[in-house]
Amino acid sequence: MPLASRYRAEPAFTHGQAAATGVLLCNLGTPDEPTPAAVRRYLREFLSDPRVVEIPRAVWLPLLHTVILPRRSSRSAAKYASIWTPEGSPLKVWTERQARLLQGWLGEAGHRVKVRYAMRYGNPSIASQLDALKAEGATRILVIMAYPQYSGTTTASVIDEVNAWAGGIRNVPELRFVRGYHDEPGYIEALASRIGGYWRQNGPPDHFLMSFHGVPQRTLHLGDPYHCECRKTARLLAGRLGLAEGDYTVSFQSRFGRAKWLEPYTEPTLRALAGKGLERVDVACPGFTSDCLETLEEIAQEGRDAFLTAGGKDFRYIPCLNAEPAWIRAFGEITARHLAGWPTQAAPDAQAQERTRQAAAALGATR
Question: Where is this protein localized, as stated in its record (predicted)?
C-alpha cells in the first residue's frame, strides 16, 4: 500500500516547457451573495483569523459562534444587499477589473506574466488561485496587496495564507510580496487626480475628510505601522492637493467591539464638523483601492446620514481609485518594479494592447 503524502500532487509538467511568472492581486474578501447564510460563512472565516482578532481562541471562538455570528449575519446581509450590483459584490467586481487591466498594462510594457486575483476570505481563495498559477507553469509568483498601508490584520494575514499554501506544496515557486505602497508617488498622484478631478467638476468643499479603516489602538503600541502609514498617506495627499492643515481631517472607521480603536472615529467626526456649521463636507477613503461595503454603505450611506442629521447641508462621497487609468498605471509601475530581476521582459504584446483597449472601452460603457 503506497504511503500517503502530506503534499498535494504536482501539476503535469513537460520537460522543456518555458517557466512562467505569475502575479496575484489579493483583496480582503466578500460574501458570495448578500444573504444571511453567505454572510455568515464569510464572517466566520474572517473573524476566526487570529490576525484579525487577537483575543485568546478559547474565549473568542465560543463567543463568535454563539453570539456574534447569529446577531451580525442578518444585519450585515441587509447592508450588503443595499450596495450589491447586477454584476455582484462591488469589491469583487472592481478587483477583477483591476487584475484584468493590470494584465493588459504589464503586457503593453513588455512583461509576459499571468495575473490573477484572490480574496483572503471568500472566493476565489488565495490557495485556489496559487494552484491555478502553478498549473499554468508559474515558477515565480509576485503577491501584491490591495492594501496600500501595511497592517498585521490585513497584509500579514495574506502572507500567512500564502505561506500556509506553500507548506502543502512539494515544488514551491519563488515567492515575492509587495508589502505596501502608502507613500508611492504614483499612488499619491492617482489619489490626487481622482479627488482633484472631482473638485474641478463639482467645486471644493468646506472641509475634506480622509477616512481610513480602523484597527485596535493597542496594535499601534505593539509595533504595527498602520497608523503612521495612514497619516503619511494623508499628509502627502493633502500636500499634493494644496490643502492647509485646517482644510482636512483624518479619521478612522469600522470600529468593532468595546476596545479602544484608532481615533478620531469617523461618524462622530462628521457630526462634529456639521456642528461647527460646515455646510459641505467631502469624504474619500484613501486606504481602500476598491469601493466596497465600508465605503459605499458605511460612508456613502451611514456617514451621509450622520452628517445631515447633525445639521450639515451637503455630503459628498468621492469614489475609490477602482479602475481609474492613473491608478492602473501606478499599480502597473509598482508591480513592474517588484518583478525586477525575473525574466518577464518580452517585445510589447499587440494582443495585450488590444485586450487593454477592449477592457477600458467596456469599463467606460458600464460607468
Answer: Cytoplasm
